[in-house]
């Protein structure tokens, strides 16, 4: 019995190791650097950041009706203006966990860039005009870094900070339209102070 358990563990470990090696061999084809993004910002390209979660994670499974990030990316992509890309930030803990087909499928949308997963929030957040997320800490980090241009799909504990019109799927469309017309509804400082 013990041998069978170890054999299963070894097979799983080899599969995971193969996935991780595949990702790292394709790393430069999948992920772009912050230098690449900064050079494109100088050429008129703009970005909205979409951080991916560790899966499974309680914030997506319990605080959201939708935890399929691929479907959400495919929902956002056609709604972006021509001069915007969705900058998808993989969680470094998920390297080797997602199937390689996920990255390929999402990149085919054309206006999606995967950002280097090893960049810190301090390096990542200034690259975007705003951030869309299911829930999790990235939205709160963005707010605390001074970027109040955020939209959520889930129901995190800090949801009362986010303007009502930027919540849920309709909120994504409102957010993108307001960002495009530079008419973003900012988070109220009093709400932020009382939350903290």
Describe this protein's structure:
- The model has no long low-confidence stretch (mean pLDDT 84).
- The protein has 10 helices and 6 strands.
- It has a 6-stranded parallel beta sheet, with helices on both faces.
- 31% of the residues are buried.
- It has helices spanning 2-25, 27-30, 34-41, 58-61, 69-76, 100-107, 121-124, 137-144, 168-180, 189-195; strands spanning 31-32, 46-51, 84-89, 112-115, 130-133, 150-152.
- Helix 8 (137-144) links the parallel strand 5 and strand 6 (150-152).
- It is globular and about 55 Å long.
- With 196 residues, the protein is of the alpha/beta class.
Describe the secondary-structure layout.
Layout: H1 2-25, H2 27-30, E1 31-32, H3 34-41, E2 46-51, H4 58-61, H5 69-76, E3 84-89, H6 100-107, E4 112-115, H7 121-124, E5 130-133, H8 137-144, E6 150-152, H9 168-180, H10 189-195
Parallel strand pairs: 1-4, 2-3, 2-5, 3-4, 5-6
Keyword list:
alpha/beta; six-stranded parallel β-sheet; 196 residues; 13% strand
What is the radius of gyration computed over CA atoms, rounded to a whole number of angstroms?
18 Å
Class derived from helix and strand content: alpha/beta
What fraction strand?
A: 5-15%
Strand order of the largest sheet: 1-4-3-2-5-6
Amino-to-carboxy terminus distance = 52 Å
Number of strands: 6
Structural shape:
globular
Q: pLDDT below 50 for ≥5 consecutive residues: which ranges?
A: none
Name the helicity range: 40-55%
The number of helical elements comes to 10
Largest sheet: 6 strands, parallel
> Oligomeric state of the chains?
single chain
**SSE pattern:** HHEHEHHEHEHEHEHH
Mean pLDDT: 84
